[in-house]
Specification:
8 strands, 17% strand, homodimer, 8 helices, DNA-binding, Arc Repressor Mutant, subunit A, binds manganese (II) ion, SH3 type barrels, 42% helix, alpha+beta, six-stranded antiparallel β-sheet
Chain lengths: 220, 220
DNA sequence: CGCAAAAGTTTGATGAGTCAAACTCTGAAA
DNA sequence: TTTCAGAGTTTGACTCATCAAACTTTTGCG
C-alpha cells in the first residue's frame, strides 16, 4: 500500500483539484498544504506519476489519475469516519479531531474501518459537515454557498465548515453556527467587511466576511 | 517522540526481558521478534543506547534503561487499550485485534487514548488477559502458571493466553478456555505429550503440552 | 515588449531504516 | 585445548523522505 507521505500528497492533490477550475494542482499550493518545500513536492510528484497515481508534466502542474483519485477518496473516507467516531463515540471536541484523524487515517485497516462504519450507523457526513464517501468510493458533491452570498434578512441553514483550524472551529461552535443550524442574516457592513448573523436561539454574532466565506450554507 | 520502528524495538525488548532471567535480550531473539536481520537490530540498538533508552555492550546483550522501560510500558498501554476497544466496542474477533493494534498503537495520541480509556471504563486487562498499565505507568505483575503445571483432576481458571497467533486464539476460543473460564484437567498423557481439559459447560478438548504451556492459569 | 517576481526544478546532502554478505567473537562439545 | 556452529558485528548499498540552495521557466505588469 501507499506510505503515509504518499497518502498525504494524494489527499492534498484531491482537495486542491476541487478548488481549482482546471482540476490541476500547483506545486507551491501542494507543497504548502503538505508542509514541505516545493523541491520536495516536485520529487514526490514524479514518484506518484511513476506509480500511475498522477499525471505530471514539467512546469505543467499535476492531476490525479483515476487510480490516484480512488486512493484519495478512500483516505477521505477513513479520515472522516475517524473524525465522526472521535466526536460521537469518544466525545472529543470537534476542534481537535482533525489533527488526530490526520495520523490515524494511515494506520486503520479496512476491517477496522468497516467495523467503525457499522458502529456509527453508516453516517453520511463528518462533524464538520463534509460528505463521507461510501465504501465503494462514491462521494456526494458537497453543495451550498458561502454565508457571504446571503443578504440581510435572508434565512438559511449551515451545511459545512470549510476550515479545520481549531480556533476558528471553537468560534463557530460558540456562535451556534454548526452544520445543520438554521440562521438569519441581521446585517452586512461592506465597508467594515463584517456581517452579523443570528443562529436560531442564539444572540447575533459579528464576523468578518473572510470568516463568513468559510461557512458554507443553503437556503432554508 | 519515538518513531514507529523505535517503539517496536522497545516493546520487543521489554517482552524479551520479562522472559529472560538476566533481564537482557539477545540480538537474535530481538531481531526475530521485530522481524529484521540481526545486523539491523545491532544498528538500531546502538541508536537506542545513544538516545539513553537502552544500555548496550558489544557482544553483551541489551537492556532497557528506566526511561526505555517507561516508554515500553506506555506502548503496551496503548496496544492493550486499543485491543480492548476493538473487541468491546467494535465487536471484532479477539484473534485479529493484535495485528490491528500493532499499527494503531503508533498513531494514537494521549488525548484519544485517555478518551478511549474513559469510554471503556478503565479496564484492567485486555482481551487476552494481559494487564493494562495505568496512565502513570504502573503495571500489575501478570501471575499464574501454565496449564502444564496442573495435574489430573485439578481445577482452575484461565488467566491469560500467552500467544497472539490468530489460529491458536481461534482454537482457544472454540475450546472455551478464554481468560476467566473455569476448567478441570481430565487427563495428562506424558508419552503422547498431550492433555485433556474441560472448560465449564464444554466438552473436553485434547491439546498438546506445547499449546497448554501458552495458556496461563491460576488455582480455583 | 521587456523584465522582475513567482513558480517550478535540479542537485547534493542528510537521517531513518533496512538488507546481504563478509567478517569476528563466544561457548560448548569433542 | 582445539574447533566450529551460532550469535553478533561491520560494511556497503539501497529506498524513502526531506531540506537548502542554485538554477530555470513562466507569468503578470509597467
Ligand atoms: Mn494524514
Ligand atoms: Mn472533517
Ligand atoms: Mn507496533
Ligand atoms: Mn493482547
Amino acid at each position: 500500500m501507499a506510505t503515509e507521505a504518499v497518502e498525504n500528497y494524494l489527499k492534498a492533490m484531491y482537495t486542491l483539484a476541487r478548488e481549482s477550475p482546471t482540476g490541476e494542482a500547483g506545486m507551491k499550493a501542494l507543497a504548502t498544504m503538505v508542509g514541505v518545500t516545493t523541491g520536495t513536492a516536485t520529487t514526490m510528484v514524479k514518484r506518484l506519476a511513476a506509480a500511475k497515481l498522477a499525471r505530471y508534466e514539467r512546469f505543467g502542474g499535476v492531476r490525479l489519475t483515476t487510480k490516484g483519485e480512488a486512493a484519495a477518496v478512500d483516505i477521505l473516507r477513513r479520515h472522516r469516519l475517524i473524525e465522526t467516531f472521535l466526536v460521537q463515540t469518544l466525545k472529543l471536541d470537534w476542534a481537535v479531531v482533525h489533527d488526530e484523524a490526520e495520523r490515524l487515517e494511515h494506520a486503520i485497516s479496512p476491517v477496522v474501518l468497516e467495523a467503525l462504519d457499522r458502529h456509527l450507523g453508516h453516517p453520511s457526513s463528518d462533524p464538520h459537515g463534509d460528505p463521507i464517501p461510501s465504501a465503494e468510493g462514491r462521494i456526494r458533491e458537497p453543495g451550498g454557498r458561502p454565508l457571504t452570498d446571503f443578504e440581510t434578512g435572508q434565512r438559511g441553514r449551515v451545511v459545512r465548515i470549510a476550515d479545520q483550524d481549531a480556533d476558528f472551529l471553537k468560534f463557530v461552535d460558540a456562535s451556534g453556527l454548526r452544520p445543520g443550524a438554521p440562521f438569519e442574516i441581521r446585517s452586512v457592513d461592506a465597508a467594515a467587511q463584517t456581517m452579523s448573523v443570528r443562529a436560531r436561539g442564539r444572540d447575533p454574532v459579528a464576523l468578518a466576511l473572510a470568516a463568513a466565506r468559510k461557512i458554507v450554507c443553503e437556503r432554508e
